[in-house]
Amino acid sequence: MDKSSPDTKASNEIAAIAGELLEKLSFSEAxxxxxxxxxxxxxxxxxxxxxxxxxxxxxxxLEAFQLILSLIxxxxxxxxxxxxxxxxxxxxxxREQLEAMASKIAEEVSQTKKSQVLPYLSxxxxxxxxxxxxxxxxxxxxxxxxxxxxxxxxxxK
Length: 157
Description:
By secondary structure, the chain is of the alpha+beta class. The protein folds into 2 domains: about 10-90, 2-Layer Sandwich (GMP Synthetase, Chain A, domain 3), CATH 3.30.300.20; about 95-155, 2-Layer Sandwich (Ribosomal Protein S8, Chain: A, domain 1), CATH 3.30.1370. It is built from 5 helices and 6 strands. The chain has helices spanning about 10-25, 50-55, 60-75, 90-110, 125-135; strands at about 30-35, 40-45, 80-85, 115, 140-145, 150-155. It has a 3-stranded mixed sheet with strand order 1-2-3, sandwiched between helices. It has a 3-stranded antiparallel sheet with strand order 4-6-5. β1 and β2 (about 40-45) form a beta hairpin. The longest helix is centred in the middle third of the chain and has 23 residues, at about 90-110.
C-alpha cells in the first residue's frame, strides 16, 4: 500500500469526490472545504437541513462516509490518504462532550480510587479521551478488549 503525503491537488480532488457523493445523497447545497494538516486531509462540510442523517448515532455514518471517501480517493489517486470529515462542526462538539464526560469520570475516579469503564467509544473517540487525560496527575487511561468490545478504562494513578 502506497501512503504518500497529501498535497493541495490531492486534497482538492478529495473535496470534489466528497461533493459528488453529497450531491448523489441529495445534499447539493453542501459547502466542502479541504485543508491539509499533519498529513491528514480534513474536510470541513457545511450542510443545510438534517445533518444528522450524514452523521448518524455517535458519528457512525460519518465514519462510514470517511471510509467510502478514502476508498474512492485511493482508486482515483493510487495512494492512501488519511481523511477526516467534519460535518457542521460535529467533531468539535463531540470532543467537548467527551472531554466533559472524561473530566467528570476522572474526578470520580480520583475521589473514589476505583477504576471506571466507559461505554463504547469509537477508536477516534477513545483517542480524544486519551489525549485529554494524558496530562492528568491523578488518573490514567487505557483501552482494553478487542473490536466492538474494546472499552476505555480510567484508573487512579
